[in-house]
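Bumping my old thread because nobody answered last time. Still need a sequence for this structure:
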């Protein structure tokens, strides 16, 4: 079975469509989404509809939660808060119901899907120390997470003190060796922050035990134009072009 794993789409339709096109060409069977389908970008309904139509499993992120639970955005930056307020006004009742139906965590073929960390969906996993929070509660070999918008993985060997961190902002390949546990972040489809503006995702070949990190060109200028037309914050549009 080959899974495309997407995270942090953030209402960026052009990035999502190009990502799905590349995934389909790579003979993916199913799709897994790690949350933040909405927030920041100009196309929340279209992105919900594209994801809903895919065969697979999807969980919610903190922006999806803020879209359905007014008040949750009090932890956001002012610009992120402005985006989520706008998003809430745009979402159709079907898409609000869809976001509401998403679980916080799922398990697929023994692999955990979570938004921020295995222990807590709102926690950021950015360092080997922070990844220990997840490894300490993981029983299986593999977990997928998002939230930081960085394409990378953490590898933990039972007898070693700290996990090893490997970033892959230009794509790459990981073989899931049996003796280690892995936390894998596919990066962000719709708002990468690892210095590369291209959309990011991974393909997990469950049978082969491999994960491929891919980057995909999309029409950044088109998404930026739509954001400005919608009256979304200019700095949120500008950062897409910088990959930050
Ligand atoms: Zn996000």
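Sorry it took so long. Here it is:
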């Amino acid at each position: 079975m080959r899974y495309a794993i997407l995270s942090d789409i953030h209402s960026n339709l052009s990035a999502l469509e190009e990502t799905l096109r590349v995934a389909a060409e790579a003979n993916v069977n199913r799709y897994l989404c790690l949350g933040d389908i909405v927030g920041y970008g100009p196309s929340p309904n279209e992105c919900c509809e594209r994801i809903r139509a895919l065969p697979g499993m999807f969980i919610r992120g903190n922006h999806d939660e803020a879209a359905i639970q007014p008040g949750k955005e009090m932890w956001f930056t002012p610009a992120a808060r402005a985006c989520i307020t706008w998003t809430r006004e745009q979402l159709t009742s079907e898409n609000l119901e869809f976001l509401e139906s998403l679980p916080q965590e799922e398990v697929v073929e023994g692999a955990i899907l979570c938004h921020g960390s295995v222990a807590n969906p709102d926690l950021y996993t950015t360092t080997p120390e922070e990844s220990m929070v997840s490894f300490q509660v993981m029983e299986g070999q593999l977990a997928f997470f998002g939230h930081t918008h960085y394409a990378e993985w953490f590898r933990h060997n039972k007898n070693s003190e700290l996990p090893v961190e490997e970033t892959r902002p230009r794509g790459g390949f990981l073989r899931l060796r049996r003796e280690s546990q892995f936390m894998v972040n596919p990066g962000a489809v719709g708002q990468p922050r690892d210095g590369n503006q291209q959309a990011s995702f991974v393909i997990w070949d469950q049978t082969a035990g491999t994960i491929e990190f891919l980057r995909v060109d999309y029409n950044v200028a088109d998404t930026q134009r739509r954001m400005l037309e919608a009256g979304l914050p200019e700095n949120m549009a500008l950062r897409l072009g910088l990959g930050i």
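The mean pLDDT is 97. Let me know if any region looks off to you.
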